[in-house]
Design goal:
- It is built from eleven helices and three strands; from the N terminus they run ααααααααααββαβ.
- With about 290 residues, the protein is mostly helical.
- The protein is elongated and about 105 Å long.
Length: about 290
């Protein structure tokens, strides 16, 4: 009985010790003790105590330990500064986007609904950084499209916007907005703290305005009709029911060739919808019957 009681008491004491140690470590007191111990050792080393022998590597490690209690606070400060800065930058970009939108024409009448933003919103729910990186890529792709009829394309968004603004293709307001937004995107993509969900939505909304504006400029500058003529309903039906001879050239082969297709209006629509996927370019569309 005595041995059994002693064993039970010993196990009870061990459990109490384990529980106390768990509370001790979780409370963070161990950090304070290590912190104080390191301070004492460093002070002894500073005053050249004969019984203290430490080298430079040990001092470096001890300094790192000394900073440990403040690591979480440093991270909070950095995150707070970043959020404050990005909030200010986003607010500025939102105002710029509103000004550009109010100055623009009726974009919905001349450009297709932008489906890229919907894809980015879905991606942002899974990987915000990847979504913002893709937004930057989409903006750069739209800018490159404005160089369709130029021989060379400058490298980098900053240089592209500078040339496009200098030649009057885009406005200086749009140039500044693009640079401000891509600056935010670059900082996030290169490892800074991820913006809040609200800020991500705001950035995507601003990005949508930029993409729509670039599509509108592309249409107005290069795709808008050179002339317009009214037709009657009979002529309209003739165009809708006609067959068209579509001529394209395939240049990227050892023996270049000309392709001819006979397409109705529906087939023509399908062909043009995937036109950029073909390794050929369009040279003529002619109504034949």
């Amino acid at each position: 009985m005595i041995h059994l009681s002693y064993g039970i008491a010993l196990r009870g004491d061990m459990n109490m010790i384990k529980e106390w140690l768990n509370k001790f470590f979780k409370s963070g007191k161990i950090i304070v003790i290590i912190f104080c111990f390191n301070v004492i050792i460093l002070l002894l080393h500073l005053f050249r105590a004969s019984f203290v022998q430490i080298d430079n590597t040990t001092i470096l490690l001890m300094l790192l330990v000394l900073l440990t209690p403040f690591a979480s606070h440093i991270k909070k400060i950095k995150f707070g500064d970043f959020e404050a800065e990005i909030n200010q930058d986003i607010k500025k970009a939102e105002q710029q986007a509103k000004e550009i939108k109010s100055e623009g024409g009726d974009k919905e009448q001349v450009i297709k609904k932008n489906s890229v933003i919907e894809e980015l919103e879905e991606l942002a729910a899974k990987d915000p950084v990847l979504a913002l990186a893709k937004l930057r890529i989409e903006i750069e792709k739209k800018l490159k499209r404005l160089y369709t009829f130029k021989e060379t394309v400058p490298s980098g968004i900053k240089m592209m916007t500078q040339v496009l603004a200098g030649t009057g293709v885009i406005s200086n307001k749009l140039r500044r907005l693009i640079l401000d937004v891509t600056s935010i995107l670059n900082r996030v993509v290169h490892g800074e703290d991820i913006p809040t969900e609200t800020n991500i939505d705001k950035i995507l909304n601003i990005g949508s305005e930029i993409l729509d504006e670039l599509d509108y400029i592309l249409f107005q500058k290069f795709i808008a009709p050179a002339s317009k003529k009214r037709i009657n309903k009979k002529e309209l039906n003739e165009y809708m029911d006609a067959v068209y001879e579509v001529t394209t050239v395939v240049p990227l082969v050892n023996k270049p060739q000309v392709n001819t297709r006979l397409l109705n209006q529906e087939q023509l629509y399908e062909f043009l919808d995937g036109y950029e996927e073909y390794a050929e370019f369009l040279v003529e569309i002619k109504k034949i019957k």
